[in-house]
Fold this protein.
Amino acid sequence: MREQRLERRVVTALFVDVVGSAALTQELGPERVKRALDRAFAELAALIVAEGGTVEKYIGDAIHALFGVPATHPDDPQRALRAADACVRWAAARPLASVPLEVRVGVETGEAIIDLAATETERQQMSIGACVNVAARLQQVAEPGQVAVGPTCREANAEVAEFIGLGEVDLKGLGRLPAWRLVALVRSRAGGRVPFVGREPELGLLRLAYARARSGRGVLALVSGPPGQGKTRLVEEFVAGLGAGPRLVKARCRPAGEPEAASPLRQLLATENTAMSMEDLTAGLAGLLPDATERHRVATVLGHSAGLIVSRELTGLPAGQRQDEIVNGWRRYLGVLARAGPVLMWIDDLHWADGEVVQLLDRLTLSAEMPVLVLATARPELSAQGGLRPGGDRFFLTLDALDEGAARTLARHAGSADAPGIERAEGNPLFVIELARARSLGIERHVPLTLNGVIGARLEELPARDRELLQCAAIVGETFTARDVALLSGRDPAEVAGALERLAELLYLQPAAAGYRFHHALVRDVAYGRLTAANRMQLHARYAREGVRPEDVEILAHHLWEAVGLADADWVWEGSGDLPGLRQAALHAHLVAGGRYVDRAAYARAIDTCRRALRFASGPPDTARVEQAIAAACAAGGEADEAWAHYMRAREIHRDAGTDPPADLYPSALELPVYTSGMFRQAPAAGAIEALLQEGKDVAGRARDDASLARLLALDAYRSHDPAQLVEALRISEGLSDPAPLASCLEHAAILQNRVGEFAMAARLYERLDALDPASVPVDRKLEFRGILALHTGRLEEAERLAERLLAANASRGPHLRTHSYREQCHVLLARGDWRALREVAADTEQLVATHSSTSFCYAVTTARAFAVVAHALEGKPAEARALLSRAELPLQAEPLERESVLLLAYGTVGARAEVARLRRQIREQGETPFWFFHRMEAVVLTMLGRWQDLAEVLPSLERIAARGSPYLEALLEAIHEEMGAARGGPAVAHRKLRELGYAGWSQLLAHRPAAP
């Protein structure tokens, strides 16, 4: 059997039919007609070959020819029309005395599979494609002496030919299709738009952007335009003109799955060090950040966002707070870099970047006070995707095409002695350059059809073995190594290295760190596009098996998707024993890659990657596993409703199959509505949550999954405030070999214990949290919760130290978490009665909120605002206090009763009795038992207002909590009783125990008697 060498090409098919030969045979006899037809076919074939066509075969009275095989020309559709027109003219010019023959022609352009081996031998069966079938049918509907043209060929020749529409014609077996009749070939109409301009105006705008950055402002400049429009060249010219002025850091974004695709941030950190590691980063920061704590914080944020490490401290944060931390860490890093002068961050092809990277760049440069210019290039689609907000320090440049003079000058510099016909390039610089290079190499001097046609023509100038190397390289991506190409081509590495060096000299490639990259992304696209589906998929599979390191799961998932994920995979791998194994490998790679993207906060890509894994599921267990992974990715990205739906879908798949879901599905799903109900647009009903909790406990029991059971018990305890379930959860967790997955439930259990006044249990939980892997629990939470416990149990000095440590730890973090530090400061300062310092912290909080308008803040801001009201009131400034109340009341994300507690105290200190009564009534009407600290605020406010009867109803619950081991509460209650006694004529108050503990602020609050407003 003859060997085949198949390639996907854009070709133009032409069918010429000699009309009326059967009737002539009856009239003139077969011998005469046979001789005439032989001569006609020879002459018609000569006309076709003269225009660069290849005759594939003769079908009865018709000739089938192709343009674009075996060699591609940029103007193959135009050549085909010239040949068709020549055939019609040939028939019309035949002498009347000869045998009267007429011809009719059909022509269409499109993609076809070409057997290159057949083009070199018998030229039979060398093409298969829709355009071939369309051209054959068009020839059948054409009238004698007529050239019928299909829509693609007509569009390609719109400027070099005149047509008359034939309307939609019925093509046998293909349906109805619009067609045109060729009227005449004309000269190229070059008078239209001739794009691309000289770049001085754009350079001027970039210089203005840089001048603004030098003045100390964060600036973002985006240069957008279609491929080949000169975006990168413009930036190169701009940067070269700056000389040694700024510190330059560069990155290039690539599509998902290609090398460096997910790490433009790593490139920005690494500059020329492509083997960047966490150790390299830490060493580099040593000279920039002398403070060890801050250096560790910034290194963690940079390393995590760049994919060098996975920080559990960051992944444990809600999505908004994590983004705050990443933005703040990068701002700190760039700020110290910029001490020595302006920083220029140059990022190419930003349209390939994750949305999270685009948002990071947006926030880095919005209202930033640092001399940093972020200069990015992107295709126009980035604007449609959004993510970059307008502002005074934003420059958005859209590159138009070069004008005719600039295009001709560029063509001459690229090697063309003259530049006729370059108008067809429409001012695209790469198009102009490739056309000029093609002409300098002796390729046909005609106007190219498209940029792909020009590049394709250049590829045809290469030996077949070199073209094959480029196609193998295209499988890897835009960047590759000689080893990669040798692996895929099956050729000797030394031979391949030499060939790649030659291709670099010919400007098909260019050297890159540790390898090569295509001279332009479009060169790679054309080379890749010529591979057949079968060849392409098999090469991707080979590279996935042998060329990708197991740890590079994102790249592995990309190649396995291209190998077995697309629709053609079903027939390409039909009957292959490799397909099941490849699909299982693809399933695993996609799920692991989705988890990696979650770790890097690339949530959209994580969800998309996990959804792709559904393609490889071979049964219900696989499908359910994928649905659970999609749910986890949605949950991490803050899409609670979608996460819940996918968790429930995974559960139903298992139940429909008659099996129990994995026990860990239940706590993973239920943590969303129990711990973070505010993330839902429509939270699950309480009954559904309760039923699922019980079902999960039953499943965990049957599976003997103690970790999941402990998590479920802790969830139920948190939801119902049932300490017995929490005690059981903690008992079970003691026997787990790996308690790290319990960090979240331990943390929330500690919160619950503090809220219900079980201080000893809360202390033990914090100790258990400390015993876990330090990366499992963010350091700020350890400090924050320990500080709250210390404050509630009378250890004010310890609380003060922890608050200071928290403030220092969060100093280099994002604005949201910094407000958490300010909240703890406020609680300590209120306890101390340091009203001036309290107002200063509140002012710092307001400044932070004002300068970070895009950040979502929580009730920590309410605390600072409410305590500022308290400070003004206790300093004898009731008017100022009341004026601040409107800001304190602004709704913000809140934990149960935290916001209401501090607002109640603020209302009480200004004597807003109606608001106090309303808030107390509102809490009780909600039907939930208030936590002890709300009762504490009630007791203090009722004491200030002299509401002794109401106070008597509140005190018993506080006395029960105080008896569990809180010297602070005991001292507070003693002081309240003193106030009650004094109001009834008893001895003067002293608040001795309260003041001995240092809680002078609470003493002053109890003695405060606000005037009626």
About this structure: The chain has 48 helices and 16 strands. The mean pLDDT is 84. Residues 30-50 form the longest helix (21 residues). The chain has five domains: 6-185, 200-398, 404-461, 534-634, 778-1007.
